[in-house]
Automatic annotation (TrEMBL):
EC number: 2.7.1.12
Protein name: Gluconokinase
Sorted UniProt keywords: ATP-binding, Kinase, Nucleotide-binding, Transferase
Matches recorded under PANTHER family: GLUCONOKINASE-RELATED
Pfam families assigned to the protein according to its UniProt record, in alphabetical order: SKI
Organism listed in the record: Actinomadura miaoliensis
Keyword field contains Transferase: yes
Pathway: Carbohydrate acid metabolism
The organism's place on the tree of life at top rank: Bacteria
EC primary class: transferase
Length: 180
């Protein structure tokens, strides 16, 4: 840590099932922290999007190049911090991300399956159909006690979620508003 500049900016993965609000929350959190943001959907190869659009869940072979690309993004942003979304549903997936960025912290947006199902069904034009919500919950392995991260209730407002993260994260602080 560079004590002259203060604590290093956090390197975060906002995780959870499809429809948990990862993108909305992640973008808002990155803005408050003053760090770059990336959406994991942008890392999917076309074959993954086609498969999910057809209502088929991804398998580990589909996920591997996607997870590696996200890990590379994390490693590249480790010095200055950043926020990326990634479902990171299984411990093995999170381990792959930690291989590239050992200091990463996971922010798990977790909540009720029916709330998520309604959210996914209400997203116009998104490639992830509501029919895959159950497979997402079936795949989900919660953070282990030895994994660096926090769990937040996805049913809270975005502002409340950002505040909850900032209150819970040791050393986290929001950047001053631009122009302040």
């Amino acid at each position: 840590m560079d004590t002259a500049r203060g604590p290093a900016a956090p390197l975060l993965v906002v995780m959870g099932v499809a429809g948990s609000g990862k993108t909305t929350f992640g973008a808002a959190l990155a803005q408050r922290l003053g760090v770059p943001f990336a959406d994991a959907d942008d890392f999917h190869p076309p074959g993954n999007i086609a498969k999910m659009s057809a209502g088929l869940p991804l398998d580990d072979a589909d996920r591997l190049p996607w997870l590696r690309a996200i890990g590379v993004w994390l490693a590249g942003h480790a010095p200055g911090g950043g926020v990326v979304t990634c479902s990171a549903l299984r411990r093995a997936y999170r381990d792959l991300l930690r291989e590239k960025a050992p200091q990463v912290t996971f922010v798990h947006l977790h909540g009720d399956r029916e709330v998520v199902r309604r959210r996914v069904a209400a997203r116009p034009g998104h490639f992830m159909p509501a029919s895959l919500v159950d497979s997402q919950f079936d795949t989900l392995e919660p953070l282990g006690p030895d994994e660096r991260g926090i769990v937040l209730d996805l049913d809270a407002s975005v502002e409340a979620l950002v505040d909850a993260y900032l209150d819970a994260a040791p050393g986290a602080s929001a950047s001053p508003p631009r122009g302040a």
